[in-house]
Amino acid sequence: MSAGAAGGRALDGAGVASWIRHAARLVSADAERLTRLDAAIGDGDHGLNLDRGLTAAVEAVEALPGGTPPGKVLIAAGRAIVSKTGGASGPLYGTALRRAGKALGTADTADAAALGDALAAALEGVRELGQAAEGDKTMVDALLPAVAGYEAALADGADLAACARAAADGAARGAEATVPLQARKGRASYLGPRSTGHMDPGASSTALVLRALADVTAEGGAAWSGSS
Amino acid sequence: MVGLVVISHSRILAEGVAELARALGVGKAVVEPAGGDADGGFGTSIDLVERAVAAADGGDGVVLLADLGSSVLTAKMYIEDAAEDDEDGVQGGVVLADAPLVEGAVAAASMAAAGADLAAVLAAAESARDHRKS
Lengths: 228, 134
Fold this sequence. Notes:
The structure holds 2 protein chains of 2 kinds. By secondary structure, chain A is an all-alpha fold. Chain A has one domain: Alpha Horseshoe (Serine Threonine Protein Phosphatase 5, Tetratricopeptide repeat). In chain A, 64% of the residues lie in helices and 3% in strands. Chain A has a two-stranded antiparallel sheet. Chain A starts with 9 loop residues before the first strand and ends in an 11-residue tail after the last helix. By secondary structure, chain B is of the alpha/beta class. Chain B has a single domain, classed as Phosphotransferase system, mannose-type IIA component (Rossmann fold, 3-Layer(aba) Sandwich). Chain B contains 5 helices and 4 strands. Chain B has helices at 11-24, 46-56, 70-84, 101-113, 118-127; strands at 3-8, 31-35, 62-66, 94-96. In chain B, strands 2-1-3-4 form a 4-stranded parallel beta sheet, sandwiched between helices. In chain B, helix 4 (101-113) runs antiparallel to helix 5. The mean pLDDT of chain B is 92. The interface between A and B is medium-sized, with 18 and 17 residues. Chain B: It comes from Actinomadura fibrosa.
């Protein structure tokens, strides 16, 4: 299996598997912080739930035969998350990954443009399912600036790794910006003005997942198995 | 007959609402609970929803009632998946009622037990939103 063009300009199935594995590691390492954020304004299970879902996703991805295309790897990961995550993050992350996977189709690799389309499809799926708008204090507030950052970098002629870094930066800024917001979706919305002053856990975990993508696609990134 | 599925984070709540709806559907309504996560804990499970829909499906369609949050998301996701995957398709279709859980389930069960079609059962569930209590 090859990573495609030299310099890691395309992501293959193994590269996507590395992304999922790295995302699972980052979420697991931060599970306690995510759960603490969720305990402040939600039902206190986000870190635990997503950790469990991503662990199942890693298992599902590792059970796939070598050479599985990136789209199929994402769909398998999404399915596993849906069936193993009890909270709202299951359907939302599951939809995001499955929509992204469907957007990639059966191509052997995803180049920067294809991955951008996949991230946009993920955002669209999450918005459709959760009916959340920008500023509602949800994962959309991280995913939207991530997609915008990715697309702006792509338009500037950046390669996949640089686009992914721009997405990660956009997501991190977006998650940070949820702190003063009042929640309009989920359990936190029942708290009204009391939901302000805390970062949204879903936006925070979304930033981790996109950081994982930037890490594995970065040139020389240790987890970017597809480019070795 | 149109079947009903009650989706809740809590297994006990789903079973309780199903029990009440069956009783007020004069024992004829088919109401299946899908409560808690797959391991019996608190949460929602798309696999449990799938099983409950299969059990509630009598060929005339199934109405889903969900409590809140991930129950609603899981119900919507199940419907989206079922629409894509024809083998899984329930004859007559599966719809999510935009209705309060208890009142919606009771209204839907009453209408289903009267032999109404899917659209009428769904409308009965959704009309429960307007039943004021004071």
